[in-house]
Amino acid sequence: MRALRLSDKLELVRDAPLPRHPQETLVQVICAGICNTDLEITKGYAGFEGTLGHEFVGRVVESPRAELIGRRVAGEINVGCGACPLCKSGDSRHCPSRSVLGIKGRDGAFADYLSLPDANLFEVPDSIDDTAAVFLEPLAAALHILDAIEIDHSTQVAIVGDGKLAQLVIRSLTTTGCDITAIGKHESKLSLARVAGARAVPLSDAERERGAFDVVIDASGSASGISLAIELVKPTGTIILKSTHHGSTTLSLTPVVVNELRIAGSRCGRLGPAIEAMSRGSIDVTSLISAVASLDDGPQAFARAGEPGAMKVILRMS
Amino acid sequence: MRALRLSDKLELVRDAPLPRHPQETLVQVICAGICNTDLEITKGYAGFEGTLGHEFVGRVVESPRAELIGRRVAGEINVGCGACPLCKSGDSRHCPSRSVLGIKGRDGAFADYLSLPDANLFEVPDSIDDTAAVFLEPLAAALHILDAIEIDHSTQVAIVGDGKLAQLVIRSLTTTGCDITAIGKHESKLSLARVAGARAVPLSDAERERGAFDVVIDASGSASGISLAIELVKPTGTIILKSTHHGSTTLSLTPVVVNELRIAGSRCGRLGPAIEAMSRGSIDVTSLISAVASLDDGPQAFARAGEPGAMKVILRMS
Q1: pLDDT tier, B133 (very low <50, low <70, confident <90, very high otherwise)
Q2: How confident is the model at residue A112, as a pLDDT?
Q3: Which of B170, B141, B138 is nearest to B268 (CA)?
Q4: DSSP states of A269-301 as a string?
Q5: Tell me: the pLDDT tens digits for B185-215?
Q6: Which residues from chain A sit within 8 angstroms of residue B249, using beta carbons?
Q7: Amino acid B195: pLDDT
Q8: Phi, psi of B76 (to 5 degrees)
Q9: Which residue of A has its CA nearest to B245?
Q10: N or C: where does chain B have the smaller number of CB atoms within 10 Å of the terminal CB?
């Protein structure tokens, strides 16, 4: 099969073996989305080598759970050991020996086929089309913010960033009725934020918003995001760190102590709430698609996804 | 009056004016303790100029609250504007226009007299002697950790640091029954931690403790404390940042996101619970005193307080 693999560089391999794990389910990938994490991995983040890709929709080909065969599915991406206390409590996302689809110890979705345990797979209803279904995994991550902090109509929220993840965060938060401000560099992306219901502020004007927000969500994907978040948040407020990136950050932690800020890291969410939100029609993602390309053009699609101003680039397998 | 003041350098001034603020209470200082924050301020932290010192016990000389006159008191150090929503809710600690005794916009306790509003002052019972009373303010800060996070007998807690604040944190946490590990550089200080009920681990062995703790408290006073804390804490665990220091920190925030850590800054606490804990006799602080010096020897006492291995150096005013 074909697979877009990273070793020294990213390349399309045409004779990759089928990913077969005993007791797992084989999925024929339909579409898969390129995420900022994929771009960071190509720069060295996570030290991963293998097939990239973790946002997908596909059709089940083989499964120990026979009723899954033929179903169109999206997937949660963490696969735990199944034996540790975290896995036994139903949360493999922090299993210390987990693999993560296309990120850690497990080939990913930029291929004709992928393998995951059946427990990771969720049927996608017909109301969600293939390209929208690719957003279910990052939408789950965006909605997962609401597991970390209570946000209601009285909460002043700022989102640092205007990219793909930031846009999904905005769309996830509109259901709470909170006041949303998006802070970003790109006028075209800020327009998308406005359409989704946010007040949009160019990064160059962010200084005026100092200390104005109860909650600041860093979805900037950049090392400087947290420093801006620290400036924007009110004393005793909360910062949610949503994006990972390769490399270190230099910052002053003194305001965190003096202003008694709270910072919470937030990563993968659950697919159930994401499927429910998207099938209700309350989350529009079609405006977030920059391009749909063939897997055969994978390396070029990656280059496109890394261009300034690019939003989601989707790979279609056939 | 005498005052130990910082401008270009730290020096004892003999003809400082009495600190008189309308509507406030004048306190004759008996003893005051040198804190790491004072040492950091002399390096440029907080940009403060004036009389240093914020840990004190003294006797009320003049007050609009007549019943305070003659009483021996300790004090909370933040003075808010009294008019903003935070002040009106009873918490001046985060008032944006607050002054802070000996730290921000208000002369401090290394002087014959200081001034504070009567609401900041708390009578010290006879069971707490003068040198112990100096620890009430930092003890309140240590106990304030329990306002930020629930800790009980099942919680595995590590404290990064073995200095004055770390020792008070250990002593504050023993009441919860939690399992306490102190990680520090100085064998003599680690011995004090052991006596207080902690398991003590030399910093050189900290590597073996990776991912072992539900809660890690950084009381190291150093820029590298948080990076070690991030290594020590379990996935989804909590880091409490307790110490401030001058300058920036370089760290990787990726584990904060991937392991969904929580970080909370924690600063000043309330004197009431500190007085209660110390008067119950459950908090021993006498073993934490390195020296008691005269205010006349203030600059030398500062040098002593900054030596490796030093614990609390107390200035006595008469």
Answers
A1: very high
A2: 98
A3: B141
A4: --HHHHHHHHHTT----GGGEEEEEEGGGHHHH
A5: 999 999 999 999 999 999 999 999 999 999 9
A6: 250-253
A7: 95
A8: -80, 145
A9: A254
A10: C
Cα separation, B95 vs A88, in Å, equals 46
**Å from A221 to nearest chain B CA?**
11
User: What CA–CA distances, in Å, run from A232 to A18, B90, B260?
Assistant: 48, 24, 21
Residues in chain B closer than 8 A to A226 (CB atoms):
253
**Measured distance CA(A15)–CA(A275) in Å, rounded:** 34
Residues B86 and B98 sit within 8 Å (Cβ to Cβ): no
d(CA A139, CA A279): 12
What's the full length of chain B, in residues? Answer: 318
Q: CB A250 to CB B249 under 8 A?
A: yes
Is residue A28 within 8 A of residue A316, CB to CB? The reply is no
Segments in chain A below pLDDT 50: none
Strand partners, A12: A4
Residues 6 or more apart whose Cβ sits within 8 Å of residue A168: A135, A138, A139, A141, A142, A283, A285, A288
Predicted complex ipTM: 0.94
Q: Please count the residue pairs, one from chain A and one from chain B, whose beta carbons lie less than 8 angstroms apart.
A: 99
What was the pLDDT predicted at A250? 92
pLDDT at B172: 96
What residues of A are in the B interface, CB distance below 8 Å? 45, 86, 93-94, 96, 148, 211, 226, 235-236, 241-245, 247-267
Q: What is the pLDDT of residues B21-69, one digit of tens each?
A: 999 999 999 999 999 999 999 998 888 999 999 999 999 999 999 999 9
Q: How far is A219 from chain B (nearest CA, A)?
A: 11
Write down the pLDDT at residue B222. Answer: 87
Distance from CA of A107 to the nearest CA of B (A): 19
Q: Which of B239, B235, B250, B156 lies closest to B201, judged by CA? A: B156
The B-side interface with A (CB below 8 A) comprises 45, 86, 93-94, 96, 148, 211, 226, 235-236, 241-245, 247-267
What single-letter amino acid sits at B171? R
Better-scored residue on pLDDT, B245 or A61: A61
pLDDT band, very low/low/confident/very high, at B72 (cuts 50, 70, 90): very high
Contact across the interface for B261 and A259, Cβ inside 8 Å: no
Rounded Cα distance, A305 and A302, in Å: 5
CB-based contact B241 A235, cutoff 8 Å: no
- Kindly report the pTM of this predicted structure: 0.94
C-alpha closest to that of B73 among B277, B272, B287, B289: B272
From A249, A262, A266, residue closest to B260, measured CB to CB: A266
Spell out the residues 6+ positions from residue B123 whose beta carbon is closer than 8 angstroms to its own: B68, B71, B72, B73
